[in-house]
Amino acid sequence: MSDDLRPACVLLLPRPLDRFILRDQAEDLLRGEDVVAVDPPRPGYGAALRLPAAGAATVARRQASVLLRRLAAQGRTPKVVVLFHAVQEPVAALLRTRTNAELWYWRWDRYEAAGDAGPDARRRLEQLHLRALSQSSLTIASSVRLAELAEGQGRPVVLSPLAADSFPAPEPTVGTVALTLGHLGRRTDWALLRGLGERLPDLQLLLVGELHADECAGDADFAWCRDHAPFAFLGSLPDAAVAELMRLTDVGLLPFRLDPFNDAGLPYRILKTARLGRLTVVPDLAGVRTWDRAVVVAPDVDAFAAAVQAESGRRTAPDLELRAWALAQTAAQQNAPLRERLRAMGLDAG
Description:
The protein is an alpha/beta fold. It has helices spanning about 25-30, 55-75, 90-100, 120-135, 145-150, 190-200, 220-225, 240-245, 260-265, 270-275, 300-310, 320-325, 330-345; strands at about 5-10, 35-40, 75-85, 100-105, 140, 155-160, 175-180, 205-210, 230-235, 250-255, 280, 295. The longest helix is centred in the N-terminal third of the chain and has 21 residues, at about 55-75.
């Protein structure tokens, strides 16, 4: 390597950065001007496990040369090489030999004991792991147990537990949680939902049901709802899972457009939500008034927002009278008029 190359701490990424489990900590280190990262060379570090020793050594030499050329193109030479997995040891060892760099071994998992590796792979991983330990001047451990294991083998250790900087952390004491269940497409009033989200920016809305994005192409309100973080599109779920979600919510929503088709309907979701002791806020539709005990009619978006907000806290204080009413709306109850007419005709209706 040329003497004019600037020394650097080189992170040997086992995967591209956006898919690396230690991404947050890697990105933090990369804020330093002298820390650089290199993506894995082809065919990937794990390829060595599938090759005989001679073939694995050939691949490692080629990969080390590729990485050094990449670094040289950036005007860099390794002073510290950080490896994150034992399969990187052959390449890391070559970099150390060719540049006299110091090796740091970052242990975030005990992969040589993983259940998805066969006996041969485990033995090979254990060998590579011990070689990585012996050649590294520092072991970085993600857990106290990993630190204990390294210390037990006489290695210097720094404890550096995991970070989750990039994981979303919305306000945990959200005021209201709502759920809408069913078709998400042309029947949905996306402008109403957008207006609701704009008026109640902290409203957590769970949208359960099949999403028909093709029916909403070019709809700016739909696009806004998709991008609004507190709106979670969960897809279709089994009834049991939906019922458990309802236990965590305050109120149901029926965000239907005002049109003749929707006006006549009686959506199941109203009764399903009521069985958990929650009201459903609905637009000014005629059919839903069949179950006026279970709905709050909101004629416009401001009224919708106010009705939703009024139900905040219901998840810990369900309306037990509403629940009792809903549980009484059985098939036998609803079929009673039909059964009476059949009996009047002399038929056994059960």
